[in-house]
Design brief:
Catalytic activity: a ubiquinone + NADH + 5 H(+)(in) = a ubiquinol + NAD(+) + 4 H(+)(out)
Shape: globular
Largest sheet: none
InterPro entries: Complex_I_Subunit_2, NADH_UbQ_OxRdtase_chain2, ND/Mrp_TM
Structural class: mainly alpha
Strand content: under 5%
EC number: 7.1.1.2
Oligomer: single chain
Number of domains: 1
Number of helices: 16
Radius of gyration: 21 Å
GO molecular function: NADH dehydrogenase (ubiquinone) activity
Keywords: Electron transport, Membrane, Mitochondrion, Mitochondrion inner membrane, NAD, Respiratory chain, Translocase, Transmembrane, Transmembrane helix, Transport, Ubiquinone
Distance between the termini: 53 Å
Helix content: over 70%
Length: 335
Amino acid sequence: MNKTSSKTLFLSMTIMSTLMVLSSSNWITIWMGMEINIMSFIPLMYKSKNSLLSQSSMMYFLTQSMASMIFIIMILVNMYGWNNLYKNTDMNMIIMLSMMMKLGMPPFHMWFPEMMNKMNWDMCMMLMTWQKIAPMYCVSLSIQNNMINMSFIALSTLSGAILGLNHTSIRKIMSYSSMNHMGWIMSCILMYKKLWMMYMILYSVMMIMFSLCMKKYNIMYINQLNIKYIPVMDKINMLIMMLSIGGIPPFLGFLPKWIAMEYMIMSNEIMLLLMMTMSSLITLSYYLRMISYLSMFMSHSQKWNFLSLNNKKNNMYMFYINMILPMIMLLMNFM
């Protein structure tokens, strides 16, 4: 009972701290909300005596603390009017770099895949979705449309695409996929401020569904997609989710990328859009590699893994959610 109540306390503190950041009107309260978020997320992560979890919690604490120190120093510089040391654009750039360190974006990404590989799917799901909302909100407040930020967006999308090619751990692959999506979200912030919220919501829905599906069958590596017995309908759901996360039309994941492309074409950012689109095509290669294992529906499943053969329940909710996009396109044509 005590363990459950403490987990509820820290989970509610994690949620409330992010809401505190989103509703703040000055930088100090944003910093306070982020510090509460760090201190409430670490106990959730370290819920059992495990050397891997202790390493990941220490890695998370050190990285986030370093980023928070840079952030609070820039806030104090701005508050006490030391403008002769730094220009306003320089301060915004340093604040944005500290947030990129919190998000695990290139070139500050080395901690993120290693930490993801040491955690269970529940914590991976939180780290890829909820924990990115507050830093991304700070990025939206401080980002400026210049060549440096464009370079960071291109680096994030390309690094997330290329570095994920050489891994068989699904958690590491999803961490590099998250870097690629963070680059897309930053481009949404540059083109149209409100667009990143829609992208973040749709991305979070897809990642939550994917993480819950991987948790259900305790899948950590690509070869386990073929070894474990998974019902055919669940395999089809996984296949649709992977194509949706990759941004293939007509699935739901294509919608935010489609809108981001339209705004980037309107802003005449053709070269950046070309690099981001090419990187998204590269990410499809490791989704297709996972799909190739799933596509062998029943051929290599072992007899001793037929434990849920009599389970007739089909999880259709993932299929319905990922097929919302054609209905949205149909409604847009009628409007």
